[in-house]
Design goal:
10 helices, Spore Coat Polysaccharide Biosynthesis Protein SpsA, Chain A, two-stranded antiparallel ribbon, 2 domains, alpha/beta, globular, 5-stranded mixed β-barrel
Length: 289
């Protein structure tokens, strides 16, 4: 049964310094909800029940966010504002596990630390920096593909060629609508050497045989242990699928992407949509813009 999901959240968040000097970037708000909560809610709505966080020193605020705060709860009850924590209380009883990554050795290394918590089961991975607005949660979409084919699944989207060096890039043969068998996978290639413009996005469902491969993976792009390299090794042993998800993805882990995310989320919320539209129109009409 697919019920465990890993959130690698040990990154320093240097793009957002000095804001992230004391506050984890995953706690930065998208209006009034931390980025990490969007990812956890997506996972819960997709049927996951065990949440595994790979953290680092200084991420204690992230852990506290999903823990009960009786004093705050009592304050809100007294002032009849308990609704302000709607959507958060449900996580107080969930199964949350926190694992410390002592050294920043890369994304692949972070995932390898989850082996003890995952055990001998298939599991998902979600990168909170990728906020995806979708009618059906993206992890639920990947779950459906996994349950149909019973093999690892990686989320993909097409990107402009000038953005190719920022991503893992794959290519392969389509076996169904939006689903292809990955035959080539390269981490952050130069555009001229890329097999396509199909970019890996931060959602995965993997099988436990990835863990021995991660332990044997040497340092790759960026002098770090890359998950992509382990998946390439896994492709030699079993079929790995790519899936083009339905939804709109925002890279909230960059400053410009964060601004874009705020605007689009504001446009989707009934309580902020009208104001945001009015503000954007005013700015567009301003001769100084």
């Amino acid at each position: 049964m697919l019920k465990k999901i890993v959130f690698p959240v040990a990154g320093v968040g240097t793009r957002f310094l000095p804001a992230t000097k004391e506050v984890p970037k995953e706690i930065l708000p998208i209006i009034d909800k931390p980025l990490i909560q969007y990812a956890v809610e997506e996972a819960a709505q997709s049927g996951f029940a065990d949440f595994i966080f790979i953290t680092a020193l200084g991420k204690e605020a992230l852990e506290r966010h999903f823990a009960p705060n009786p004093e705050l709860d009592n304050f809100l009850k007294r002032h009849r504002k308990s609704h302000l924590l709607d959507g958060l209380h449900e996580f107080y009883q969930k199964n949350f596990t926190y694992i410390r990554q002592e050294q920043a050795l890369g994304f692949g290394h972070a995932i390898s630390l989850a082996q003890g918590a995952v055990g001998n089961e298939a599991f998902a991975i979600s990168l909170p920096d990728d906020l995806i607005l979708a009618e059906k949660p993206v992890m639920a979409q990947l779950r459906a593909v996994y349950e149909k084919y019973r093999c690892p699944v990686v989320a993909f989207m097409e990107v402009p060629r000038h953005d190719i060096p920022r991503y893992g890039i794959g290519a392969g043969k389509f076996i169904a609508d939006k689903v292809f068998e990955i035959e080539q996978l390269v981490e952050k290639p130069v555009a001229a050497d890329a097999p396509s413009n199909f970019a890996v996005i931060g959602r995965y469902i993997l099988t436990p045989d990835i863990f021995p491969l991660l332990k044997n993976t040497t340092h790759g792009a960026g002098a770090e242990i890359q998950l992509t390299d382990a998946i390439v090794a896994l492709m030699k042993k079993r079929r790995v699928l790519g899936y083009f998800f339905s939804g709109q993805r925002f890279d909230a882990g960059t400053t410009l992407g964060y601004i874009e995310t705020l605007i689009h989320v504001a446009l989707q919320r009934p309580d902020t949509r009208a104001f945001t539209l009015r503000l954007l129109r005013q700015l567009a009409a301003d001769e100084k813009i």
